[in-house]
């Protein structure tokens, strides 16, 4: 009796120690993942902010050019108005000189146009956003599926007459089915598991001195 108690306590202590270490590992992994995600978020937001500044700078540059051109046009009109009272010969000479002076400054071509590189950069941000949504959903589904599998541990109703068990996977349907390989009798079906696109690693736990052989 004392030996059984000591063995039981030893097994309990080993399991508690194991779950403690796994808890610490889980916390460490989640914190590392959180730290890495925060770093990536800061980098991406910094790039977006830089792009915003470039867009605003480009806008201010375009507006400044427009203001400069309008100012030149106002000056031209004002100077023409000052000269229109002169004699015709003198007026024509002054007009030619004035027009020649202002023709040196070429108006900006398509002042509202932005470099194509900026547009490509914004489209890249949009692609990253779509990618993040997809990878986040995949991560959640995978984690949820793993937790459901752990929560779904079920003892199969096996008997001494049962010799072979058939395990069937329906990855798209998210089901794992256990049945008698000889009679095809259904033993148990586990559903709502995230199996599609995942690497599956079978794991079996046997009580006492039972043995298990995997058949092709």
TrEMBL record:
<dbReference type="InterPro" id="IPR050143">
    <property type="entry name" value="TRIM/RBCC"/>
</dbReference>
<dbReference type="InterPro" id="IPR013320">
    <property type="entry name" value="ConA-like_dom_sf"/>
</dbReference>
<dbReference type="InterPro" id="IPR043136">
    <property type="entry name" value="B30.2/SPRY_sf"/>
</dbReference>
<protein>
    <submittedName>
        <fullName>Tripartite motif-containing protein 15-like isoform X3</fullName>
    </submittedName>
</protein>
């Amino acid at each position: 009796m004392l030996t059984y108690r000591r063995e039981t306590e030893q097994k309990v202590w080993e399991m508690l120690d194991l779950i403690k270490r796994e808890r610490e590992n889980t916390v460490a992994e989640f914190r590392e993942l959180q730290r890495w995600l925060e770093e990536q978020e800061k980098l991406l937001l910094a790039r977006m902010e830089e792009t915003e500044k470039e867009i605003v700078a480009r806008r201010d540059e375009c507006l400044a050019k427009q203001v400069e051109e309008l100012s030149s046009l106002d000056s031209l009109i004002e100077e023409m108005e000052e000269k229109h009272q002169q004699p015709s010969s003198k007026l024509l000479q002054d007009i030619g000189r004035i027009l020649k002076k202002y023709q040196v400054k070429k108006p900006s071509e398509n002042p509202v146009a932005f470099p194509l590189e900026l547009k490509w950069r914004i489209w890249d941000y949009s692609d990253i956003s779509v990618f993040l949504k997809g990878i986040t959903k995949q991560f959640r589904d995978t984690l949820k599926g793993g937790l459901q599998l752990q929560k779904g541990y079920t003892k199969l109703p096996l008997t001494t007459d049962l010799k072979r068990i058939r395990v069937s996977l329906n990855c798209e349907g998210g089901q794992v089915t256990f049945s008698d390989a000889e009679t095809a009798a259904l033993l148990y079906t586990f559903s709502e598991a995230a199996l599609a696109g995942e690497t599956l690693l079978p794991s079996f736990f046997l009580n006492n001195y039972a043995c298990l052989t995997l058949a092709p």
